[in-house]
Amino acid sequence: MSVCSLYRQKTNNTVDCYTRGFFDLSSGTHGHAILTLQTIATQWLSSSRNMECAQMKKLAWRLRKNNEDSDIIQLADRPKQKPTDSICRVCSKSFSFLPGRKKTCKSCDHAVCSRCCVKKLVCVMAPDQCSILEKKRTFCSRCIHEVVQSDAVAIAREELVTMRHDSDPVEYSL
């Protein structure tokens, strides 16, 4: 089995995916052919998760960026406060009658109702900095839309600059 996929960005919101595979089902037994077909089907179906993985990476980047920004603004000893918003950031409905429906977006820290939020699986670095944790986080639909529309090249460029700056003990000035 051999599969190759190529991706080409057509517009800001469109990426073409070209995939070609070669499979040899002639050798082996009937059981071997069935197992091979299952593997092929799994391979083809997994390509649809690439978009989900890209969005998860963008969400994780945004969480890191927002966390770094809030660390600069807040004092180190001061605990993070819960939002006191009385209306949903997305639909502007009040929480006065249904306080249990109030959720907090992990990206923007605004209050959102349960209808306007989405739970997404995000991989984050564990506190020991040696392993990765998968966590379900709540995001408002506005932040999800902003992340989906964000420029992946700009994010990758910023990550490379940050990684280079963090690993290099020499300070640069522009």
Descriptive report:
With 174 residues, this protein is of the alpha+beta class. The protein folds into two domains: 2-47, no CATH class; 52-167, Herpes Virus-1 (2-Layer Sandwich). It has four helices and six strands; from the N terminus they run E-E-H-H-E-E-E-E-H-H. It has helices at residues 30-46, 49-73, 141-149, 152-167, and strands at 2-11, 14-22, 102-104, 111-113, 117-125, 132-140. A two-stranded antiparallel ribbon has the order 1-2. A two-stranded antiparallel sheet has the order 3-4. The longest helix is centred in the middle third of the chain and has 25 residues, at 49-73. Mean pLDDT is 78; it is low at 72-78 and 168-174. Keywords: Metal-binding, Zinc, Zinc-finger.
Principal-axis shape equals elongated
**What series of H and E elements makes up the topology?**
EEHHEEEEHH
The portion of residues assigned to helices is 25-40%
Rounded average pLDDT? 78
Number of strands: 6
Euclidean distance between termini CA atoms: 51 Å
Proportion of strand residues = 15-25%
Task: Extract low-pLDDT stretches.
Answer: 72-78, 168-174
State the name of the first-level CATH class of the largest domain.
Alpha Beta
Instruction: Note the main sheet.
Output: 2 strands, antiparallel
User: What class, by secondary structure content?
Assistant: alpha+beta
* Spatial extent as radius of gyration: 22 Å
Number of helical segments with 4 or more residues: 4
The CATH architecture of the largest domain can be named as 2-Layer Sandwich
Strand arrangement within the widest β-sheet reads 1-2
GO molecular function: zinc ion binding
Keywords: Metal-binding, Zinc, Zinc-finger
Domain FYVE-type: 82-148
Protein name: FYVE-type domain-containing protein
